[in-house]
Amino acid sequence: MTFNLPELPYPKDALAPYISAETLEFHHGKHHAAYVKRLNELIAGTRFASMELDEIIKGAGPGPIFNSAAQHWNHSFYWLGMKPKAGGKPTGAIADAIDRAFGGFDQFKAKFTDAANTLFGSGWAWLVQKGDGSVAIVQTHDAENPLTRNEKPLLTCDVWEHAYYIDYRNARPSYVEAFWNLVNWEFASSNLT
Ligand code: FE
Predict the structure, then answer these.
(1) How far is the CA of 193 from the centre of ligand 1 (A)?
(2) How much distance in Å is there from the Cα of 159 to the middle of ligand 1?
(3) What's the pLDDT tens digit per position in 156-173?
(4) How far is the CA of 65 from the centre of ligand 1 (A)?
(5) What does the radius of gyration of the chain's CA atoms come to, in whole angstroms?
(6) Are residues 104 and 179 in the same domain?
(7) Looking at the predicted structure, is the pLDDT value of residue 132 above 90?
C-alpha cells in the first residue's frame, strides 16, 4: 500500500492567528509530507507494504519504519483535532470522563498544558482512553504513539519545535495556550468508546 499525505481539513490560513498559514505550509506541506514519503520508501518490498498504518505502528518495533509510520499517524490525527473557531469546553460523555478523571475541565486543562510544556525535547501530549474506559493525559517522546501501549488517542498536541517555532519562536507555552482556541471537541468525542 502507498500512503498519501491527507489534505488539511481546513484552509491553510483558517487557524490564524493561533497557527499561521506559514506554519501549516511547513508543518503539513514539508514535515508531514516528508514522513509520508520516507514511510513509502522504507516499506517498499517489505512485509509492511501490505499493512494498514496502525498495524505497522503496532508491529514494527523501534526504528525508522516505526518513526515514519507513527509520525504520519500522529500528524493526521493532530490536524483533525483542531478546527477554526473551536476550543471552549467539551460536552457530553467526554466532559463527564474528564470530570471523573481530573475533577473538572479547568484542572484537566492545567494538567494537559503542563504535560505539553514540560515534555523534554520533541514529542506529543495526548488525552487518551485507557482499557478501563477512563481518560488520562500522557506524554510521548519523538514519534511514540499511545496505540503501542493499548491506549486509545482522543486528542493530541504536537510539541515538536516545528509545530510552533515560526509563530512563537522558543515560546512553547504561548503555542500551547493558543492551541486551546482550536481544539475540536467533536473530534475528540468521536474517538471515545
Ligand atoms: Fe509535527
Answers:
(1) 26
(2) 7
(3) 999 999 999 999 999 999
(4) 17
(5) 16
(6) yes
(7) yes
Cα of 162 from ligand 1 centre, angstroms? 6
Q: Do residues 59 and 142 share a domain?
A: no
The Å distance, Cα 103 to ligand 1 centre, comes to: 30
Q: What is the DSSP string of 53-92?
A: HHHHHHHS-SSHHHHHHHHHHHHHHHHHTB-TT--S---T
Total domains in the fold of the chain = 2
- Which residues, at least 6 apart from 37, have a Cβ–Cβ distance to it below 8 Å? none
135 & 49 share domain = no
Same domain, yes or no: 150 and 183:
yes
**6 Cα: distance to centroid of ligand 1 (angstroms):** 14
In-domain check, residue 49: yes
Residue 190's Cβ-side half-sphere holds a number of Cα atoms within 13 Å equal to: 7
CATH number of the domain to which 148 belongs = 3.55.40.20
Ligand 1 centre and the CA of 191: distance in Å?
21
Ligand 1 center–CA 5 separation, angstroms: 13
Ligand 1 centroid distance, CA of 165 (Å): 11
- pLDDT given for residue 135 in this prediction: 98
Report how far ligand 1's centroid is from the alpha carbon of 100 (Å): 30
For residues 41 and 67, membership in a common domain is answered with yes
Range of 141's domain?
Answer: 92-191
pLDDT of residue 1: 76
Q: Is residue 1 part of a domain?
A: no
Per-residue pLDDT tens over the stretch 104-124: 999 999 999 999 999 999 999
